[in-house]
Amino acid sequence: MNIKSLLFGSAAALIAISGARAADAVTVAEPEPAEYVKICDVYGAGYFYIPGTETCLRVGGYIRYDAGFGDVGSFDGAKAVDHQDGDDNKTWRKNARFNLKTWTGQETELGTLKTYTETRFNFGNGAGVTGRGAATDNPAVNKSVTLNFAWIQLGGLRVGKDETPYDQFIGYAGSVVQDTIIPYGIKDTNVVSYYFDAGSGFSGVISLEEGSDDKGISGTIDSYVPHVVGGLKYKGDWGAITGVVAYDSSYEEVAGKVRLDVNVTKELSLFIMGGYGTDDNLRDDAGNVIDTHGRGFYKPWGGNWAVWGGGTYKFNAKTSFNVQASADDDKNYALAANVAYTIVPGFTITTEVDWDHFGHFGDGTSAVNWTKADKKDSVGGIVRFQRSF
């Protein structure tokens, strides 16, 4: 064997070995089967099946930015202590919010099984006043993180944290931002509710509730006896008429509201709502109001009666005008009006002007909220930017 033959033999052997290794390196394993997310259109747009289950899930929410100005009593303005000389200054009342919502739905042999959650994250300042209108330091900080909804519903039965049907079943009080200058209810509570559809436009609800303590009103039940709410509604093409009644088990008081909605035209809709509540046990033996100032969980307005009215006019698909006027037995009056403009789908700017007059301001006969301005009449406004998804 000469050197030339030896070299050719060695090269052939190296090529064979390299080829075998190269063949091993490019061996491709069989792909695993992929499971893609499937659209679920049973419950509306935005739902998809949770992989491996029959449960449909939707995730949504909004980003909101509010800038309020004016008198503190209008619920829009704020006060702050001047950092240099300690004087009281008026300032913007701002709040940024991230709202996260989830919905689930699944069909069962007992009906549709649904859940809903809503959590709110806030950053901004507050009214910036304590006592009788004296300003305090009013920094913009991370504020509350609140669980606003967390309920389960099977068929008509709903349990968990919800807004009381005393407010949401009847339809709140208009489409203005500040719809509670004359308050119509306190929304948050744990519930065991049952909704039913009687057909022919009739529906109803009955709810056992825990209540909550909000805005200085002691509304949480103090025994095993729950608050009780009932409601009936008739709805037609022309509008709707709704009534709700509530029993406050803590104070053994009764309150109710009746609302009429009318669709005047495709562009114009109007509503009027009246409320009445007892307050005998909300006063002491001498007739003076106790710590809740004569207001209960289901009668947060002043005196026995209150009324709200207003409506919406749609100029076009993007622009609407909303107005609400309200008054109560305690000579409190309020007016709110705004224009909401949808720049692009999902992004709306609302500009609102608010006015209120407090009839028994500071005399101890009504629910004086000392975050209000030191005068009977207040004016303010708010600009809201909201991106919903």
Cα gyration radius (Å): 30 Å
Distance between the termini: 82 Å
Instruction: Give the overall shape, derived from the CA principal axes.
Output: globular
Describe the main β-sheet briefly: 16 strands, antiparallel, barrel
Q: How much of the sequence is in beta strands?
A: over 45%
Residues in helices, as a percent range: under 10%
Commentary on this structure:
The chain is mainly beta. The protein has a single domain, classed as Porin. Helix content is 7%, strand content 51%. The strands form four sheets. It has a 16-stranded antiparallel barrel with strand order 2-5-6-9-10-11-12-15-16-17-18-19-20-21-22-23. Strand 21 and strand 22 form a beta hairpin.
Write a concise keyword list for the protein shown above.
two-stranded antiparallel ribbon; globular; 16-stranded antiparallel barrel; mainly beta
Nutshell version of this structure?
The chain is mainly β.
Q: Any chance you could write out the topology, listing elements then pairs?
A:
Blueprint: H1 3-25, E1 48-49, E2 56-70, E3 78-81, E4 88-91, E5 93-108, E6 111-124, E7 129-130, E8 134-135, E9 141-154, E10 157-163, H2 165-168, E11 188-199, E12 202-209, E13 213-214, E14 217-218, E15 227-236, E16 239-248, E17 253-263, E18 268-277, E19 305-314, E20 319-328, E21 333-344, E22 347-357, E23 377-388
Antiparallel strand pairs: 1-2, 2-5, 2-23, 3-4, 5-6, 6-9, 7-8, 9-10, 10-11, 11-12, 12-15, 13-14, 15-16, 16-17, 17-18, 18-19, 19-20, 20-21, 21-22, 22-23
Membrane topology: Multi-pass membrane protein
Signal peptide: 1-22
Main location: membrane
